[in-house]
Amino acid sequence: MKMYKVGGAVRDQLLGLPVTDVDWVVVGATAQDMLDLGYRPVGADFPVFIHPPTGEEYALARTERKSGRGYGGFVFHASPEVTLEEDLLRRDLTINAMAEDDDGHLIDPYGGRADLNGRWLRHVAPAFAEDPLRVLRVARFAARYAPLGFRIAPQTLELMHTLSASGELQALTPERSWKEISRALMEPTPRVFFEVLTACGALGVLFPELETLGDSNLNSLQLAAQAEQPLTVRWASLLLGLGEPAVLALSQRFKVPRECQELAQLSDRYAGQACRGVALGPQPLLDMLQAFDVYRRPQRFEEFVQVCALALRAQGQQPDPLATQLHDLAAAVRGVAVKPLIEAGFSGPALGEALKQARLHAVADYCRGAA
Q1: Residue 302 CB: number of other CB atoms within 10 A?
Q2: Alpha carbon distance 38, 256 (integer Å)
Q3: CA-CA distance, 339 to 207, in Å (whole number)?
Q4: Which spans in the chain are helix H?
Q5: 313 is in an annotated binding site
Q6: Can you give the pLDDT at residue 21?
Q7: If DSSP codes are grouped into helix, strand and coil, which group holds residue 368?
């Protein structure tokens, strides 16, 4: 039995980047061997084990063959006879197909180190074209490593074209697709992810709605990444101006988390109004604040302010005056106290109406002062 550090840990170590997760391949062992050593099994598709003290993943060396459509359409074979080189051959990119032994020696049968030095994202073998998920993965790696000068090898981009035209992308599950999309959105240059999908013909298959958007959306998304905004803001920035029906359709198609979907929908509905600031008028402004539930969910409104600010900045406009107004308006309505209204004798529906009117007056007072 031999254990090798593999994949991203080896790649990032050679690039001089921080290594956060370490994966291992075990050659010459059976599942029972791993259990006897106290490793905890996880997953049902292939034998992966967790090392109890470290939490790191140890997978038995395996091969795979295509057996159906989509990401899950593979049959895996793991046995003590599978070699390290056979296991590495099934991986997507050469830079992910390197291993390191216990003595720190690099095992690099497919030229991964040369591609690291040359800044190439290159497929390991023609079998790359059997897995549609690799279109999203390579685009995500491009978004991660673009600042280091990495680009996709022409032959690999050609295989991605083939996959995009094959109909295989439609067989991807929403959950697996969103995992790659969300990770790509959180990379340093997320706009590159969508540029790569456009270049290989996948954008029109996976995101046909996005083909109608202008470059300002990708600029907003990139600005959100530079500002280290959360996933919710990045998703809403990407979809801003798409129209609520399309935002909803995209979010449902990929089973996007509820907080991302809600912010994207509300941002699309109200960003145009919000950009008018106090000129919009007290009642529409109060309606907008109510829609975001600024009383119980202040963070969601703060994220909306960021979406608006990023959109303005992407268009070359100064966002600070608007952001200040929106923050002040939210503070004005939150500052309306309920206790004086109760002491004045209001209760039930009458209390609700009196509170609404008090908040409207607070917004109107602010608008007059800011005009």
Answers
A1: 16
A2: 37
A3: 50
A4: 8-15, 31-36, 84-89, 112-118, 133-145, 154-166, 174-185, 190-199, 203-206, 215-226, 231-239, 244-253, 258-274, 282-292, 298-314, 320-334, 339-343, 348-370
A5: no
A6: 86
A7: helix
**Contact call for residues 238 and 225 (beta carbons, < 8 A):** no
By three-state DSSP, how is residue 101 classified? Answer: coil
11 is in an annotated binding site: yes
> Is 137 marked as a binding-site residue?
yes
Residue 191, marked binder: no
Contact 309, 301 (CB under 8 A): no
Residue by residue, DSSP assigns 308-349 as HHHHHHHTT---HHHHHHHHHHHHHHHT--SHHHHHTT--HH
Say whether 359 counts as a known binding-site residue. Answer: no
- Rounded Cα distance between 267 and 219, Å, is 17
Contact between 222 and 178 (Cβ < 8 Å): no
For 273-294, write each residue's pLDDT tens digit: 999 999 999 999 999 999 999 9
Is 8 annotated in a binding site? The answer is: yes
CB atoms within 10 A of CB 196: 26
23 is in an annotated binding site: yes
Q: What is the pLDDT of residues 138-155, one digit of tens each?
A: 999 999 999 999 999 999
